[in-house]
Amino acid sequence: MKSWLRGARDGVIAGTALACALPIYAAEERVLEEVLVTATRREAVDVRTTPVAVTPLTAEDVDLLVPRDLGDIAALVPNFSAGKPAGFNAAAFAMRGVGQTSIIVYADAHVGVTVDDFVIPHIQTQVLEMFDIEQVEVLRGPQGTLFGKNTTGGVINVRTKRPEIDELSLELRGKFAEYGRHEERFAINVPVVEDTLAVRAAGVFINSDGIYENGAAYGPVTAFDPTHPALGTSGVGDGRDAGGDDAFSGRLKGLWTPNENINVMLTYEIIRDDGDAPPSVNGTPPNNPAFVWNLLGLTQDAGDPLKRAATTNRDDLLLNMSKGHRIDVDGYYLNADWTFADFTLYSVTGWREQESRLPSTYTGEVGPVSLFDATRDDDRETFQQEVRIASNFAGPVNFVGGFFYQEDETTFCVLQVLGFLDLLGLGSGLFADPTFWDNNPQVLCNAQDAKNWAVFADGTFEVNDRLTLGAGMRYTHEEKDWIGRNQVFIQSLGGGFNPGFTWQNLGTPLAAADFARWPTGVLQHDEEWNEPTWRGLASYQFNDDVYGYVSYSRGFKSGAYNDQTGTTGLGITPAAAAPTDPEIADAI
C-alpha cells in the first residue's frame, strides 16, 4: 500500500534576534489517511483492518506513476512482477512466483484481471491502457471465495470512474515523449436527468514510432541447397522505425439512479489497436555450430540490438505483416446493485467480442527468404453473469455469497511460412522447387468452447471487539470442448494435395477452421473438472496501532489445451490432444 502521511511542521528559531519575529509551530501528530478497499466484496472498509493481502492504488497514485499500461503498477506493488511474452503485447503477470509467460490462447491466467467486475478472459488484452481509473486493488494469493473466477496467483481488480450525477465536467490531457510518442486523453461527464441519470465518455489515443529500427542484415547465406536463388545474395531491413503504437481505447457509460438504493450502469467498451508487430532480434551466439542459424550464415548482427531488429513486412500468403498486430474489442456490460433491508444485491452481466491478428517475424532476420514468418489469428466471444448478495448487519456475523458463470468460445489458427527449410534443401528434395516452403504457407487450426460455473460464500464472525474469525468456500465446475486439426499445407486441407487450391482461394487463415468442410485429420476432445476450494482466517486487533491476521487459502486452475498441438504436421493422437493437468495452490 502506498501511504500518504501528513507532514509535520516543526518550529524553527533562527537566532535570538529573530525569535520574536518568527512564529513557532508545534509538531502535528502524523496521521495515516484512511484508504477504503472492496476486497471483502461487501461495503468498502479500511485497508488497515482488512484480512486480505491487498495493495490499493488510488486515482492519485496512478496519476503520479504515469503508467504506460497496467503492468507498470508493479513498481508500487510488492510480490507482483509484470512483463510481456516475447514477441507479443500481452501480459505476463506473476504474484508470489505464480505466473506464466505463454501466449497459449486456451490457458487461463494465473493472475486474473477484472475491470468493473468483468473477468478479462485472456492475457492478450490484460495489458490495459490506464485511463479514467478510480482505483486498482491488487490481491495476492489464491482467489475464488470472493471474486468471480478462481485463480491461483491473485487478482488485479480495476475500478474505472463512474458517471457523476448532476456534474458537468471536461478533462483533457496530453503527453509527449521520445520516439515520436504522444498520448491524448479525454473524459467528459454530462448530467442528463437531474438526480437520476448521467453519462460519461472517456478515452485515450496512443501513437509512437517505436524504439527499434528494421535494420537487420541478411546473408549472404551458406545454404545446403545449391539451387536456391537466395545463395550469394544479401539483404537488409528497410531502416524504418519498428515496434510503434497506434491504439485507441474508450468507454461510454450511462448511470441510472432512480433512488438512493438502486444503481444501474451500462457500459460500452471499445479497443482498436493497430500497433506494429513487435520486431525480433537475432541473438544466435556466434561461432557455435550447434545452432542451425550459424550453419546457414545467419549469426547475429553486430551493433546496437535496437538498430538491428527485423520484420519482413511481407503481406502476401495471408500474412499481412505490414498491418502489424491488430486487436479489436467490443464489450457490453451491465452492472447493477440494489440495497434493501440489511442486504445489497449485485449483478454483473457482460458480453465481450475480441479479434486478434498477430503476424510476426520470429527469426530476427530479413531478406529474400521468409525464414519463419507466422500470423496467430483468433476470434473470441465471452459471456459472463455473476450475482452476489452481501449482508450489512450491525451484529457480529456478515457474509457474501453468489453464483458465477462464464462461457468463452475461441477459434484459433496459426499460418506459418518456413522458408528456412528451403535453405536446408527440403524444397528441392521434396517438391523439386527450391523456393516451395517460402511460397506455400501451412495452417494449423483448433477451437474451444469453455464453460465455468461456480457457487461461493464467505463470512466473518466477530468473536469480540478484537478477535474475528472468517471462512469461505467455493465449488467450481468447468468443462472444455476442443476440436483441432494438425498443421498442413493449404493445398492439403481436403486430404491429399490439391495444387489448384492455394492461399488465394482460402481467403483468410481462420477460414481453415471450418472443420465440417475439411474434416481430414480433425480430432475432438473434452474434459471437465469439479473442485472445491476454500479459505480460513483469524484476525486480531492488538491495539489501536497494531492489527494482524493469519489465513490459509486454496486456489484452483483447470487444465488447458495447447493451441500448438499438431505443429509437427503429423496426425493428432488423443493423448496429444489431451489438456494439461489442473493446478492446485495452497497459501498460508
Structural class: mainly beta
Based on DSSP secondary structure assignment, what is the total number of beta strands?
A: 28
Q: Strand fraction band?
A: 35-45%
**Order of strands across the widest beta sheet?**
11-12-13-18-19-20-21-22-23-24-25-26-27-28
Radius of gyration of CA atoms, rounded to a whole number: 28 Å
Major sheet characteristics:
14 strands, antiparallel
Q: Which stretches are poorly predicted, pLDDT < 50 over at least 5 residues?
A: 1-31
State the end-to-end CA separation: 20 Å
Indicate the overall shape: globular
- Count, helices: 7
Q: Helical percent range?
A: under 10%
Mean pLDDT: 88
Note down, in words, how this protein is organized.
There is one protein chain. The protein is mainly beta and 588 residues long. The protein has helices at 59-65, 292-295, 420-423, 426-431, 436-439, 503-506, 574-577; strands spanning 36-37, 45-46, 54-58, 80-83, 92-95, 98-99, 111-115, 118-119, 133-140, 154-160, 169-176, 182-193, 197-207, 212-213, 217-218, 235-236, 241-242, 246-259, 262-273, 326-340, 343-361, 373-391, 397-417, 442-462, 467-489, 522-541, 547-557, 583-587. The radius of gyration is 28 Å and the shape is globular.
Q: Which secondary structure elements does this structure contain, and how are they paired or packed?
A:
Blueprint: E1 36-37, E2 45-46, E3 54-58, H1 59-65, E4 80-83, E5 92-95, E6 98-99, E7 111-115, E8 118-119, E9 133-140, E10 154-160, E11 169-176, E12 182-193, E13 197-207, E14 212-213, E15 217-218, E16 235-236, E17 241-242, E18 246-259, E19 262-273, H2 292-295, E20 326-340, E21 343-361, E22 373-391, E23 397-417, H3 420-423, H4 426-431, H5 436-439, E24 442-462, E25 467-489, H6 503-506, E26 522-541, E27 547-557, H7 574-577, E28 583-587
Parallel strand pairs: 7-10
Antiparallel strand pairs: 1-2, 3-9, 4-5, 5-6, 7-8, 9-10, 11-12, 12-13, 13-18, 14-17, 15-16, 18-19, 19-20, 20-21, 21-22, 22-23, 23-24, 24-25, 25-26, 26-27, 27-28
